Amino acid sequence: MARSRRESTAPPRALAPRLAMAAALLIAAALRLWNLRHGLPDFLDEAIPFRRALMMWGNPGGGIDWNPHFFQYPSLTIYLHLALQQIGYHVGAWFGAYQSPPDYHVAFHLDPTPMAIVARLAQVAADLVTVWMAGRLGERLHRGSGAAVALLTACSPVLIEGARAIYTDTLMTALALAALDRMLAYRANGRGRTLATAAALIGLATGAKYPAAVLVLPLGWVLWSHGGARALRRWPAATGLALLVFLATTPGALFDFATFARELAIVRSVATLGHLGNLCAAGFGFYLVGLVGEIHWPGVVLVAASLVFHVARRATRAEAVTLALALLGFAVPISIGRAEADRYLMPLLPVAAVFLVALLGAIAERSPGRFRLPAFIGLCALFAVPALRAGLAASVVSTDDTRIEARRWCEAHLQPGDVLVQEMYGAPLPDRATWLRYREFAEQTGVSAGWRGRIERMKWYDAVTLPLSVVGTTRVTVRRPDGSLIELEIFPHVVDLNQMVYEPRLLAGVDYVLTSGGVRRRFEAEPARFAPEMRLYALLDSTAEVATRIAPKRPNSGPDITVYHLGPRFRAALERLGGLEPLWWAACVPRAYREHANAVFTRAGEVATLAPRATDSALSPWTRSLRRLFEDRLQALVADLAGALERRARCAPARDLARATLEMTPEDVTACLIFAQCSGRLGDWGAARAAIERTLAALEAAGGAPPVLRFEHAETLARTGDLERARLELERVAASGDPVLAAQARLALGSAGGPFRPAR
User: Fold this and answer.
1) pLDDT digits over 79-95, tens only?
2) Would you list the domain boundaries of the chain?
3) I want to staple 218 with a disulfide (CB 3.0 to 4.6 A). Which of 322, 453, 547, 752 is the partner?
4) Peptide bond into 218 cis (omega under 30)
5) CB burial class (10 A; 0-12, 13-18, 19+) of residue 290?
6) Checking DSSP bridges between strand 475-479 and strand 485-489, what pairing results, if any?
7) pTM of this prediction?
């Protein structure tokens, strides 16, 4: 009978830790699933692995390009989202939602809700693994602390927000903690299979994000602590296994090594040079503040004390050193680097929770026997209650992001003829370039009629976004006169390029400007460095009318946004500044670069000058060397803005912008057409003809010109009195393979008054 009573009471005691862990996991799931749809159908997430995966099968043929051609992150997370997208497509095709892969892509662009939810669910699942593994590690350092560690991890705002944002850090953290768990399991059982599992998990974690490679250090320690120097001989083999697994998840590191090395150089430059958010200071202060925000100052102090205590304690030294090496391996690089992002704390927080709760358990053990459990619960509650409150606050994200509110305002107030220029992190408005890209994609890939109809009905705006240079370098690779290549650096930091697009005269003909606090506050933090940007803000504040201001209603609900209407006062101020120079953007290039480039690129018999042009109006050697910079950083902006203004018959500013492109890339057909058409409307047919003939010469040297340009050339010839050459050009167009232009050319040839002259 006594035995029966023992059997009936033992299971509940054994189940208690499991039930507590299950409760922590349920809390974690609830906090992450709450408001999982936030922001949708406006998909504002950066979601780089998700978007890269989408690009891998977005080609016209619908096949999968297994090379991401992108290695700033390794490829495991990208492949994971690629697999999820493939599953989503095939399920949708089964139910008739998609007839082909292009249908899926069009559906995403029109309403990404189903795809985004699946991707976010995968992130939530990975984060639940993180919570579970944190609890297991807590048990290994101090028995009975697993559920408390899991609860603190479950309530972390950084982890909650990261789990719904489709970052690579979430998967890396889950795999890294699993690898640590297997390391400690190997130290306990000494099995080769457990060691191999730990090594494979390190490879997978590194395949999710590169920093996880630091886990080979605690792996070496585990081998040493388990079997001394003899066991340490297995370290190279285990590290090799981790490397093989990494290469299996990121095969491009082998098969596309040039791109891999170039992308890694960008990652290193971000760490060493910083980005727009931080150009000078090391990240230690930023991450210390972030850690304090998670567990408060007493928690930070207790984590440090716990690390020292458990390393000094013989019974827990091996486990503590393993976890400490992982903690420092993730913490030191971000502390001395200049890249700042809250998500970089993700792998640190669970390990910090392990040390924190372990010390609370050690303190509680000083109490008399029957008070130990209440003391431990009470101590944990001091941290768990604020953590739960913070977790709830992070979970209740605003569904009305300020960027969405800005979009709604624009939809309600912008008129069909209005042109809007905005900073990044502004209103997510579909622009004409996006609409045309969808149409072209649908035509090339055979999108089904239903989805094609939705594209045609899609409303778009003449909205142009200023490009923002945040990370990378300002080095350009250019060819010397002898054919060899050389790499030159233009500015000390890539953010110095931003001043080129903050030229006020670019806004001639624009109706509205939208500024975003996500960008503006960074410039305002260093007004001396970002003086051109500040001058534009000052001009807007002093002469433009504030159409609306949108402030975030709660933290993490978007940047503060201001929309300016550019009225008569602003236009008068622009007139006082004069017209837009075609090489306005080159004015800020440092003297050192001009001198260096002139020394390298000056041709025989050419007189070099530090001005953008020589005395004969030809481009200076240093200006010519910046063609690639213009193409990469400015050409798309200039084309979009010039096109928007030309469509609204704002010919003078549109022509100025098109001229800027033709100065650097005379073979640009779109810019040439805009310049010629605007010049014609302004009555300057001579300028239109000269521009077209220059572009034709550049194109014919490269292989030929399109019929549309020849048709425009024919009109300029006719308008300037050269009717015979105009007729010859029209005959060439009439014989071309473009049926629409050929018909128009035949109609012009048959007009009674001559080409482009109405019959009387």
Assistant:
1) 999 999 999 999 999 99
2) 123-395, 630-749
3) 322
4) no
5) buried
6) antiparallel
7) 0.85
